[in-house]
Specification:
- The complex is a heterodimer of chains A (616) and B (604).
- With 616 residues, chain A is an alpha/beta fold.
- Chain A contains 21 helices and 10 strands.
- In chain A, the strands form 2 sheets. Chain A has a 6-stranded mixed β-sheet, with helices on both faces. Chain A has a 4-stranded antiparallel β-sheet with strand order 2-1-4-5, with helices on one face.
- In chain A, a hairpin with a 2-residue loop joins strand 4 and strand 5.
- In chain B, the strands form 2 sheets. In chain B, strands 6-7-8-3-9-10 form a 6-stranded mixed β-sheet.
- In chain B, helix 2 runs antiparallel to helix 3.
- Chain B has 3 domains: 189 residues, ABC transporter type 1, transmembrane domain (ABC transporter transmembrane region fold, Up-down Bundle); 104 residues; 253 residues, 3-Layer(aba) Sandwich (Rossmann fold).
- With 604 residues, chain B is α/β, with parallel strands linked by helices.
- In chain B, strand 9 and strand 10 form a beta hairpin.
- Classes of the chains: A alpha/beta (616), B alpha/beta (604).
- Chains A and B meet through helix 3, helix 4, helix 6, helix 7 and helix 8 of A and helix 2, helix 3, helix 5, helix 7 and helix 8 of B.
């Protein structure tokens, strides 16, 4: 359960980890020129903003007050030119910051995806896909946002305050000090509000995901709801949730609504002090009319940088938490890796030997799945693994593929411990067909080609023919070009298995591993799959997690795996005579299969069961 | 707790005119929303007044004899205006926020209820993902439209007119000279934002593509590893990732052009305004105080206009969401309370089918002219291949669908006269696909009755469904959570929990739609025994594949292609030539076959 909680943890800590911040900033290192570029641009833009206000003052004091048209024109010409320059600055900072943001996102995703490919299956076993998914998507977004727009806004805010302060001091330093004294107050108020608001929004999101969950369950379970007449009780429960949502949403709304007026009120106090004190100064010539106007402007617009900086600060905590999660993933070490000096085996032909293999999955290291497991398989032998779910069949197969490695003991292929070989060397020589075959969206041809990337279209067809998939593919709209849909869900399970068989045939592996489908497949497809398996098993060392009698019977050796041990081992006839586990499994399976085959409701007459049984 | 206002029937919101629809959606919130709009106006007025006050201060206070007397007054006025403005800004934000939240809450409640009251036919044809999208994101977009976008639009418009009014008050000619840029700015931002939203859409679509590549890679991680295709996958991802980067750049290019361009237009307008104002001040047309006021007001007039394009585009997206939500609301509900015959007591359970036909789609009958009679308390079994119409037939009884022709009578009264609610309260149906909710097992079983039930009752139901012992072995027993966050039940266990759920309801008529298909033979026999005791005075329908599951029935109906081809008890049907005997023969034969197979091996 601990692992589960860890993944649910989406909240961020309230303290900001400096190390993570540095590491986030390090993402910018390769692009430091861009960073320097946008920082320069934003500095220029905000300096010009403050300078324009100063120019407005000059227009008033030197032009309007003196009734000097020439002075106004003299000010306005550079003013206009600077406006154009500022426009260029705006263009540049939006472009530089935005593109850099996209670039950082791109880099992060690339890095994470690349790393994910190398992580061992044990990582995937203990990490929910959804968790990984949001690391790659939302967390990378948040980090990129922080190092680009966040940094830009902060710089803009700071520069704005500095330049405004600078001009205010030039105009009248005493008044400037009064105004600047109010900044810390604004900062404190703003960050207090932002924290509160963020907290409310987090609450809103939490309730929102509950609401989505409730909707989803109500829609998928609508038939049950209707048949049980639960509508009213459900609505009662649900309106509790929406009530919560209303309250949280409303709190967030009024806090946001309160924020601006409060800050404005503080500035108004400053404003009136300008009027009062500035008025007095003006009375004695210390401050011009234009000066008063400029002060009011600087004051009014100081609101925005502070608002922005408070927002960025609140975001910072969020982004750092995102960064932590990203780095925790990037730092995850693959458990199955090439040892130093590992070499390509050249061939995987040879006997496979499990010697005293001990294995436990790392989320439950106490529960050994295999303990002192020994097995010898001759080159070219076909092994059928049968037995109850959770007995250890899949583990054995996973170990052979080296998706996992034994905790103790060894597995050798052709007399050499397979850890001496490279992972790529092993896995590229083993063909695997999974129980629920996974296809990638794209055409059938692309999916088969996955087995060998340089295969020609002809080779693909040959492989499909060998696997027994050619006929149904030809019958599809578009043939080999037909799209399989996401995860292959436009095809039936049987068809998917045929294609994944063809994929394995094309790869021409030296060891063949198959997990047969348990779900029912129609008779024709079933026999085609059998035919494809036959091709694969010929002359190859094969391991089949078998669910079909015909497969089991065809094996050279049947292993009944129970509780991590080989409970029974031998040929079909031998085991059946023993009358043990296999006998029970077999007779039960036999009944079920025959029942499935003998559907009296189908129009055409069936092959007599006796004939069917003896044929295989 | 419920004030009732959250449960207003929103059907009437549906209107030919989208604006009228939106208006109706606000029902009950008019006062609040109106007050929000009014507050918006007042706060805009205060803002403009600040600058007029500034002008007054410069012209009439500064440098005059009554300076020292008036200056504190003016300063206080500034604070006073700020307070009033603050209050009304807050009011408008808070009131519109409340309106948005209220409307959203009402929509959510209504949609939730609406969805569970829409017909089976609606749910058959609608994709879950899309529906969820509509009821969550689109509702939120409507909320934003009301609470933020419409308010922002109103704010811009009010600021504009308020400030324009001030400008006219200062000098009408100057006022008109100051808004020359407005049509250009609005036009340009509208043009740009149309394109920006298109570029954004392309960017978002690519984001979707990238996500599905990632999703597929993650779910296919075994295949990737099995074929050692890491490089290939990285390249595939790289291609889409880079494409997204490119689309992002394109989107940014639009942004980078738009903002400086609008800066130039507004900058030029302001410079021009400053110049004209300065000239007028020097010629004495306006006072210097008015000039100061003018400069400030002008900035507050032009600045918001820049955002108008963005707001308009956002609003149009909000309206699209509104239309989508209305699309669901337009769907007709299933009237579960309607029916003129509501007996006070439970039905006895006598069911008669008279020449009943049914089709989901016109011209494709699923059930053809079915007639039979089930006495109260009888067990009726339906046997047939998948797709032969068995499930459709039992779906007619709780009126999940209404039959197309013929008549079904319950206790001698046409089924269509009973309210659906009455039927569903008294008919328990265990569906083929067991569905459990993400709650505890106890809550799942209790789900069928809307009241508290004693533990003993719950345990009795689960004992009858032969699942009590299984539940006892779970870490939290009856309080174990089901689903992602808790235990994963096997298909057979799920079926038995759903059976317990239905048994707890104690219905007069029980329908078991292949409800024990994933349960092993022994457990099934156990369940059957318990059911026999429990259901003595209940009419029971059983859909099954195995002869053992149907042979004890009082009447067996053999189905093929929507027709009853055979009818009778196990013994009667065995005597007849037909499908039933074939099924029986096959099963017997299989047993013999097993024996023979074993014998053949032993003989070696």
């Amino acid at each position: 359960m601990a692992a589960f909680n860890e993944f649910q943890e989406e909240e961020f800590s309230t303290t900001v980890n400096g190390k993570t911040v540095l590491r986030i900033l390090a993402q910018l290192k390769p692009h430091w020129r861009w960073v320097a570029g946008f920082l320069l641009c934003i500095t220029l833009v905000s300096w010009l903003d403050s300078y324009f206000t100063f120019l407005n003052k000059e227009i008033i004091d030197r032009g309007v007050a003196n009734k000097d048209v020439q002075a106004i024109i003299d000010i306005m010409i550079p003013y206009g030119a600077l406006l154009l320059i500022q426009a260029v600055g705006v263009f540049s900072f939006i472009w530089l910051t935005g593109v850099l943001g996209e670039r950082v996102r791109y880099d992060l995703r690339k890095k994470m995806f690349g790393h994910l490919q190398n992580l061992s299956l044990s990582y995937y076993n203990r990490t929910p896909v959804g968790w990984i998914f949001s690391r790659v998507n939302s967390d990378s977004d948040r980090v990129a946002e922080l190092v680009t727009w966040g940094m830009l806004d902060t710089t803009w805010g700071i520069m704005n305050i500095i330049t405004a302060g600078y001009f205010m001091i030039i105009i009248n330093w005493r008044l400037a000090l009064i105004v600047l004294a109010i900044i810390p107050v604004l900062v404190i108020v703003a960050s207090w509000f932002q924290k509160k608001i963020i907290k409310e929004y987090r609450e809103v999101r939490k309730v929102n995901s509950k609401i989505t969950g409730a909707y989803s369950e109500n829609i998928t379970g609508v038939r049950v709801v209707k048949s049980l007449g639960r509508e009213e009780a459900n609505l009662r429960e649900f309106s509790g949730l929406t009530g919560e949502m209303y309250r949280a949403g409303y709190r967030a709304a009024w806090l946001s609504a309160l924020f601006l007026p409060v800050v404005q009120l503080i500035t108004a106090v400053a404003l009136s002090s300008i009027i009062w004190y500035g008025g007095v100064e003006a009375q004695f010539g210390g401050l011009t009319i234009g000066g008063i106007q400029a002060f009011i402007f600087y004051m009014t617009f100081m609101l925005f940088p502070i608002q922005e900086m408070a927002r960025v600060y609140a975001e910072l905590q969020h982004a750092v938490a995102s960064g932590e999660r990203i780095f925790s993933m990037v730092d995850a070490v693959p458990t199955v890796v090439d040892i130093p000096g590992a070499k390509d085996p050249g061939t995987l032909k040879g006997d496979i030997v499990f010697r005293d293999v001990h294995f436990a999955y790392d989320d439950a290291p106490e529960e050994a799945v295999l303990d002192n497991f020994n097995l010898e398989v001759k080159q070219g032998e076909t092994i059928a693994l049968v037995g109850p779910t959770g007995g250890g069949k899949s583990t054995i197969v996973n170990l052979i593929c080296r998706f996992f490695e034994p905790v103790r003991g060894s597995i050798s292929i052709g007399g050499t411990d397979y850890k001496q070989y490279t992972l790529h060397g092993i896995q590229s020589r083993i063909g695997v067909v999974l129980q629920t075959p996974h296809l990638f969206s794209g055409s059938i041809r692309e999916n088969i080609r996955y087995g060998r990337l340089d295969a020609t279209d002809e080779e693909i067809e040959v492989a499909a023919k060998l696997a027994g998939a050619h006929k149904f593919i030809e019958d599809l709209d578009g043939g080999y070009k037909a799209e399989v849909g996401e995860g292959g869900n436009l095809l039936s399970v049987g068809q998917k298995q045929l294609i994944s068989l063809a994929r394995a045939v094309l790869a021409d592996p030296e060891i063949f591993v198959m997990d047969e489908a348990t779900s029912s497949v129609d008779t024709l497809t079933e026999s085609l799959i059998q035919q494809g398996m036959e091709v694969m098993m010929r002359d190859r060392t094969s391991f089949i997690i078998a669910h079909r009698l015909s497969t089991i019977k065809r094996a050279d050796r049947i292993l009944v795996i129970e509780k991590g041990e080989i409970a029974e081992s031998g040929s079909h006839a031998e085991l059946l005579r023993t009358g043990g586990h296999y006998f029970n499994l077999y007779t039960q399976q036999f009944r079920e299969e025959l029942t499935r085959e003998q559907d009296p409701f189908q129009a055409q007459p069936k092959v007599a069961p006796a004939a069917a049984a003896s044929a295989s | 707790m419920q004030t009732g206002s959250e449960f207003i029937d929103l059907k009437y919101v549906v209107s030919q005119s989208r604006w009228r629809g939106l208006w109706r959606l606000l029902q009950g919130q008019y006062a609040a929303y109106g007050a929000a709009a009014l507050s918006l106006g007042i706060s805009a007025l205060c803002r403009s007044s600040v600058y007029l006050l500034l002008g007054y201060f410069i012209d009439n206070v500064l440098g005059t004899a009554n300076f020292s007397r008036q200056v504190p007054l003016v300063a206080l006025c500034f604070i006073g205006l700020a307070i009033v403005q603050g209050i009304f800004t807050y009011l408008s934000g808070s009131l519109s926020g409340r309106t948005g939240e209220r409307v959203a809450q009402r929509l959510r409640n209504y949609l939730y209820d609406h969805l569970q009251r829409l017909s089976f036919a609606f749910h058959d044809k609608t994709k879950t993902g899309e529906l969820i999208q509509k009821v969550t994101s689109d509702v939120d977009a409507v909320r934003k439209f009301i609470a933020q976008e419409a308010v922002e639009f109103g704010r811009i418009i009010m600021l504009f007119f308020m400030n324009f009014g001030v400008l006219i008050y200062i000098n009408p000619r100057l006022a008109f000279l100051s808004i020359i840029c407005v049509p250009f700015t609005v036009g340009m931002s509208y043009w740009f934002f149309g394109r920006i939203s298109k570029a954004y859409e392309a960017f978002q679509n690519q984001d979707g593509v990238l996500s599905s590549v990632l999703q597929e890679n993650l779910s296919g991680v075994r295949v990737v590893k099995a074929f050692a295709r890491q490089e290939y996958e990285i390249n595939k991802f790289e291609k889409e990732n880079f494409k997204k980067y490119g689309l992002g750049r394109k989107l940014l290019l639009w942004h980078s052009f738009f903002w400086p361009m609008s800066d130039i237009i507004t900058g030029a307008q302001m410079l021009f305004g400053f110049y004209m104002g300065a000239v007028m001040t020097m010629s004495g047309e306006i006072t210097i105080g008015n000039y100061i006021a003018y400069v400030s007001v002008l900035i507050w007039l032009i600045w918001p206009i820049r955002n108008l394009g963005r707001v308009i585009v956002q609003m149009s997206q909000g309206l699209v969401s509104f239309d989508r939500v209305m699309g669901i609301i337009k769907e007709e509900r299933e009237p579960i309370e309607v029916g003129d015959y509501v007996p006070a007591e439970r039905p006895k359970g006598e069911i008669v089918f008279e020449d009943v036909s049914f089709e989901y789609e016109a011209g494709q009958p699923i059930i053809k002219n079915v007639s039979f009679r089930a006495e109260a308390g009888q067990i009726v079994a339906l046997l047939g291949s998948t797709g032969s119409g068995k499930t459709s037939l039992v779906s007619l009884l709780p009126r999940f669908y209404d039959y197309t022709s013929g008549r079904i009578l319950l206790d001698g009264v046409d089924l269509k006269r009973y309210p659906r609610k009455y039927l569903r309260d008294n008919i328990g149906i265990v569906l083929q696909e067991p569905f459990l909710f993400s709650r505890t097992i106890r809550e799942n079983i209790r789900y069928s009755v809307g009241r508290d039930v004693s533990d003993a009752d719950i345990e009795n139901a689960s004992k009858a469904a032969a699942v009590h012992d299984v539940i006892r072995e779970f870490p939290g027993q009856y309080d174990t959570l089901v689903g992602e966050k808790g235990v994963t039940l096997s298909g057979g266990q799920k079926q038995r929990v759903t059976l317990a759920r239905t048994l707890l309801k104690n219905p007069s008529i029980l329908i078991l739609d292949d409800a024990t298909s994933s349960v092993d033979t022994e457990t099934e026999a156990e369940i059957r025994g318990a059911l026999k005791r429990l259901m003595e005075d209940h009419t029971t329908f059983i859909i099954a594949h195995r002869i053992q599951s149907v042979m004890m029935a009082d009447m067996i109906l053999v189905f093929d292609e929507g027709r009853i081809v055979q009818q009778g008890t196990h013994e009667e049907l065995l005597k007849q030539e037909g499908i039933y005997r074939k099924v029986f023969d096959i099963q017997t034969m299989i047993e013999e076959e097993v024996q023979r197979e074993v014998a053949s091996v032993s003989g070696n």
